[in-house]
Write a structure and sequence with these properties.
Blueprint lengths: L1 H24 L7 H12 L1 H38 L8 E5 L5 E5 L6 E9 L5 E4 L12 E6 L7 E6 L7 H9 L5 E7 L4 E7 L8 E5 L4 E4 L4 E5 L2 E5 L3 E6 L2 E5 L8 E7 L1 H25 L15 H15 L16 E3 L5 E3 L1 H10 L1 H9 L4 H12 L6 H60 L14
Antiparallel strand pairs: 1-15, 2-14, 3-11, 3-15, 4-8, 4-10, 5-6, 5-9, 7-8, 11-12, 13-14, 16-17
Helix pairs in contact: 1-2, 2-10, 3-5, 3-9, 3-10, 6-9, 7-8
């Protein structure tokens, strides 16, 4: 910086002296004060340029750190998912020997096992249809009474008043559907005429309809409950979606076949678990790639903007220690390597899918313990990642905070410097204005002096005395 400043200042002074010499020799009139001051100010402004370049460098570092922080958070989330009791390793999958008859879905409260299901009857929904309504007639102004459940002991009732403005059967159906009567109305038309159809919104016997009206008669088709056995235990369900028969498992009935036993399996979702492990490896490799890129020379032969940041080496060391940490008391798997997660020469991880698949297929509970038990690797890693990603005290957060403070300090220095440079510029302008005035006046002063010298009388001469 000092050499550059000196060279710039020497160049500026050289240009000024050249203009002064031209003015003295009569090649020009005075000097260009504006250009002279601008040239000098470019030299004077050099420290500000340096501070701005430093701020730009800080901005690049903060951008790189922010990106690294985001990737580190993704890594923390991937570990948390493995360690979470409601996460990927706690998910279950189901299978059915005949999904056309019954299929299943399980939540994480279910237990692994196999169950036998026999479906004797599917649940049906009660409906009731009116007599044919003659063309040109309507149910405008009619009252329809609906009861739900057993006819002799209904569990619910509704009274439907058809508006007098409903002059067509479709308008009557529309008015019913706009209300809350527990039924859905439609119009069925055939070659004989049209009927109003009411369908219960509740399937099974509980939704059976009893419909009466002075305007027309209704004929009802009863709804029935689904009948099935689960592991030999009779189950009655008002819906073809059955919950509670197997804790944590929802059965979806598709067909009735009392002569077919369907096997429903509930087991850990090894596919989802393997995906979660791979997601962790991918997230870890992204962070390692971020760090490695800072020490890689670019096309200009320069390292990344964080290469000189000691925090980066500390982070790299922390991650390496975390990955290498062994767990105890969590089952047969004590390290990531024992699960087939191996470190490569560049510090990234790679999954041996065969080893991992074998672990998930044969020792799933031990895999869970490795990531989820209080003494498992997942707990250790989760604690480490919480420290690394702490938004206040984490190493990246602290680094960014320090850089922001340095940038703010530079901003204050630049503002002070600019205020001082305004004064310097005014001072230089005044000085070179004065110099320019002198240079402009110099030829006239020289001419005036020459004129004065020319007007002086000739100097007296001394003659020799003649000899008499």
């Amino acid at each position: 910086m000092g050499t550059t400043f000196s060279a710039g200042y020497s160049s500026a002074l050289g240009d000024i002296l050249s203009q002064v010499n031209d003015a003295f020799s009569g090649k020009s009139t005075g000097i260009d004060v504006s250009s002279v001051v601008d040239e000098l100010m470019q030299v004077e402004d050099a420290p500000e340029t340096q501070m701005q370049q430093e701020q730009s460098s800080i901005s690049s570092q903060i951008t790189a750190l922010t990106s690294l922080s985001s990737d580190l958070t993704s890594l923390a989330n991937s570990i948390s998912s493995l360690q979470d009791f409601d996460g990927a390793l706690s998910q279950l999958t189901t299978g059915s020997s005949d999904s056309n008859i019954v299929s299943a879905a399980a939540d994480n409260t279910a237990s692994a096992g196999t169950h036998t299901v026999v479906v004797s009857h599917l649940a049906s929904t009660s409906s009731s249809y009116s007599n044919y309504i003659p063309s040109g007639s309507s149910l405008a102004g009619a009252e329809i009474d609906v009861a739900f459940g057993p006819a002799n002991d209904p569990t619910g009732q509704a009274t439907i008043d058809i508006p007098s403005t409903a002059t067509t059967l479709q308008e009557a159906a529309d008015s019913i559907n706009q209300g809350s009567y527990g039924v859905t109305a439609s119009v069925v038309t055939d070659s004989v005429g049209s009927r109003l159809v009411l369908t219960s919104n509740t399937s099974g016997a509980a939704g059976n309809l009893t419909v009466s009206s002075s305007a027309t008669n209704f004929t009802t088709a009863a709804g029935v409950d689904a009948q099935l056995t689960v592991d030999g235990v009779p189950v009655d369900s008002g819906s073809n979606t059955v919950t509670g028969a197997i804790p944590g498992v929802t059965l979806s009935l598709g067909a009735a076949d009392p002569n077919t036993s369907v096997l429903i399996s509930v087991e850990p979702d090894a596919t989802q678990a393997a995906t979660a492990v791979q997601d962790f490896v991918t997230a870890y490799n992204t962070v390692v790639g971020d760090i490695n890129s800072q020490y890689t020379l670019n096309s200009s032969g320069n390292e990344g903007v964080l290469a000189g940041d000691g925090m980066l080496q500390t982070l790299q060391s922390s991650l390496l220690n975390m990955i290498s940490t062994a767990a105890s008391g969590a089952g047969q798997f004590t390290s990531l390597q024992s699960l087939g997660i191996e470190m490569q020469d560049d510090g990234t991880l790679q999954v041996d899918t065969s080893t991992l698949s074998n672990a998930l297929s044969n020792d799933y509970s031990d895999v869970q313990n490795f990531f989820q038990s209080t003494s498992g690797w997942g707990q250790i890693a989760n604690t480490e990642m919480n420290q690394l990603t702490d938004p206040v005290n984490g190493p990246i957060a602290a680094d960014i905070s320090g850089l922001n403070q340095t940038s703010d300090d530079l901003t204050s220095q630049i503002q002070d410097f600019q205020a001082n440079m305004t004064q310097v510029q005014q001072q230089l302008t005044n000085e070179y204005d004065n110099l320019n005035t002198l240079l402009i006046e110099y030829p006239m002063q020289m001419q005036e002096a020459a004129s004065q010298l020319a007007s002086l009388p000739d100097a007296p001469t001394t003659s020799s005395s003649t000899q008499g």
